[in-house]
Amino acid sequence: MRLLRHAATIAAKDVRAEIRAKHALATLLPFAATLLVSFGFAFGPGRDVLLRTAPGLLWMAVLFAAVIAARRAYQIESEDGALEGLLLAPIDKAAVFLGKAAAVALQLLMLVACALVLVVVLFDLTVRGPLVLAAAFGLGAVGLAAVGGLFGVLAEAARTREALFPTLVLPLVTPVLVAGVRATDLAATGRTDEAIAWLGLLVAFDVVFVSLGVLVFGFLMED
Amino acid sequence: MEIAARGLGTATSRSGERLLGVAALLALGLSATLSLVVAPPDALQGEVQRLMYVHVPAAWLAYLSFFVVFVSSVAYLRTSRIRWDRVAAASAEIGVLFTALAIVLGALWGKPVWGTWWTWDPRLTTTAMLLLIYIGYLAVRRITDNPTRRARWSAVIGVVGFVDVPIVHLSVVWWRSLHQQSTVLRLGGPQIEGSMLTALLVAVGAFTIVFAYLMAVRLRVGRLEERAAREALSPRLGEVEEAGR
């Protein structure tokens, strides 16, 4: 219980810092929007192809944004020895992981909401199963944030090797991409009952990676 | 675990290494004879099918070495002994090599038999993701000069990557079954002629000995690397002490 309270404190700190710096608003959103418009140029202007690829493109944008958000979550700690301060705090290291991941998940959800509007407008996507769609993105954001919150600390250490973090993270989150795209596709076409299995897969991924993060995050921070 | 470590020590001594090398050569020779001369060509696929005798053992080594990475990563996290980190590193390098080999050999076989280099079959796709995950693992091993930190980080990835593989596989299986676009041709069930099975089993055994040999060599190189790094560092450490005095 105390673990969750500490995690909530750290998440609140991160969210407050993000609201003040407006990093997500100023960088993440324009990045996702640019990506989606570029996808439109790459696959458009035929409506059919755009409509069929829309769920995949949307998730690709979320995936790339998650990579940036996770890196950012640890970048803000790199100045003024903030990370050392955080680690010296008398709290379980797992709380740091949970807090960071929660803050990243919140940013991703905000981003998804905006990106979804863009996709509906640009690619003419109709949503027939809003509940399934919300569940897919909610669960997907948690999974992506768990992987990002765990390995974001490596991204910060490997600043000179920019490609390393996405190379490591993108193959790991394949299940989120596959399940998320399929569930979104089914939600768009209204076959919501078929989406349950995919949502289950997302739940399994979330449970595994949140537990793994709680278990092993301390090893990444010990020095 | 202690016994395993001691066994490892014996196998990685110079004489143990030479013995493994000779055994690997002999086993590979026997395997080549069995699979190229003794086993008959496949009734349907002809000579191309002989690729199986290297493809299947390569895939087996890929899975074996990543399992070794997982086990030694857990062992490292529990004991903090740098020896386990060396085992994980050696095994991951061998694993990436043989995963790539298995994929390339599979593609060479797939072109004449399936008519395509690549198909998004679950096993193929999972193996490709496996390759990418452990390429990432090896990339992380290069980012830091602090050996303790490197060992800890790579051990975490060794554990997380391995746990992820079944989920990746499940997602790809579902993905395929709901999106069947092309029919995947398969080998005709488990029926396999006696001499072919023998050739295959011997090939798997031979490759496993090759794995042990490569591990022994790589572990020795790992120890030498560490010693070289220590010796390169020690004169400078001396200088610092002098200056401090």
Question: Which regions of chain B contain 5 or more consecutive residues with pLDDT less than 50?
Answer: 179-189, 241-245
Q: Helical proportion of chain A?
A: over 70%
Instruction: Compute the separation of the termini of chain B in Å.
Output: 44 Å
String of helices and strands of chain A: HHHHHHHHH
Instruction: Give the oligomeric state.
Output: heterodimer
- The helix-and-strand class of chain B reads mainly alpha
Could you describe the largest sheet of chain A, including whether it forms a barrel? none
Structural write-up:
The complex is a heterodimer of chains A (223) and B (245). With 223 residues, chain A is mainly alpha-helical. Chain A has one domain (2-221). Chain A contains nine helices and no strands. Chain A has helices at residues 2-21, 23-43, 47-75, 82-88, 93-123, 130-157, 164-172, 174-189, 196-221. In chain A, α2 runs antiparallel to α3 (47-75), α3 (47-75) packs across α7 and α5 crosses α6. The longest helix of chain A has 31 residues, at 93-123. The radius of gyration of chain A is 18 Å and the shape is globular. Chain A starts with a helix and ends with a helix. Chain B has 245 residues and is an all-alpha fold. Chain B has a domain at 50-179 and 195-219. In chain B, 81% of the residues lie in helices and 0% in strands. Chain B contains seven helices and no strands. The A-B interface holds A 150-151, 154, 157-158, 161, 164, 167-172, 174-175, 178-179, 182, 197-198, 201, 204-205, 208-209, 212, 216, 219-220, 222-223 and B 77, 129, 132-133, 135-137, 139-140, 143-144, 146, 148-149, 152-153, 155-157, 159-161, 163-164, 167-168, 170-172, 174-175, 178.
